[in-house]
Amino acid sequence: MSTAAPTQWKTLPAPDSPAAWIERAAEVAAILATDAAARDKAGATPYTEVQLLKDSGLVTLLGPAEHGGGGQDWTTAYRVIREVAKADGSIGQLLGYHYLWNWAARLVGTREQWEHVEAEAVRHTWFFGGAVNPRDSDVVVTEDGDDLVFTGAKTFSTGSRVSDVTVLEGVLEGTDRHIFAIVPSDSPGLTFHDDWDNIGQRLTESGGVTLDGVRTPWASAAGYVDKEFRPRVYNTLNVPTIQLVFISFYLGIAAGALETAATYTRTRTRSWLHGGYDKAVDEPYVIDTYGDLTAKLWAVEALADAVAAEGQKLHDAPDEVTEQARGEFEVRVAAAKARATDAALEVTSRIFEVTGARATASAEGLDRFWRNVRTHTLHDPVAYKRREVGRHVLTGELPEPTWYS
Question: Among 29, 154, 299, 326, which one is most buried in terms of CB atoms within 10 A?
């Protein structure tokens, strides 16, 4: 991977508008694209890729401007994730999860906590990982004086092996209260396992983690004051926010697949010998397929952008978020998630119809787009997202806030 561009960024001013940040993300994507297929095949831990995100400034996009961060909002963050994912779905996911876990302090914590976390995150260019797989309830948190001690394991811990800090989650012993805390990723007792070997999103470092007595002060327990949690509706926005992260890199992967396939079709695909056309780009079925897939992708992108803008209004006034507003937003996110899943799967599988048999060669790496989408869209069943929408339409029911809704 070239390092010339990151060196150049050090002499340039930071982007100062949403358009400029998206352009910076496109520059990052151009670097990632040069060897994306080879890196996917190698499956090496993406230390260099994460450093690229740091050098470009993308990791501090959501950070407060007064501390040197980008000062941008979620509508820009989603577009940046989409742009990076065009070149590399794994790195798009890592960046998106980083944004969510960075923002988690603001979602769950007290003002004093999130102001401290966000200032430190910008100052030290922290990259965030998370050991917060909600289906694993086997991390127990115990008290030891002024400390909390996390013990147990999580099956998935996306990004943690390449992170500076990790968000932990566990249940306080003898209660049903969940506790989130941010700890250094090199904390004693925190062991990340090199066991992520799935067909897609191979560079996300989503393997398991063991917590063997990981200690952190009680004061770091997000949202707790005097050992009591102070709930608010805004706390529950973690699910629709991260689902929009998912949508963003699904759409980015799909867009990258279309762009890569179109270049291949223009330059290498041969017309069918019995079709009567000299060039593949003149084949009616090829033209129709690209038109169909592009129209579907553009439609979902427009929906995703609209829903992101609706969500930003909630982020802008966190203390005013009502259960009704939160529920209606989740329904809209669920609809976008369902359509993004279908569109991304269709685009990434059908590109082979218009690139040809030679495009299936391993060296081309076109299969990585489908493998990446197929792997992550299994995160939670899309049928349950459609159910949220359908029940709301028929009965007015709003989704109950859970780890997945």
Answer: 154
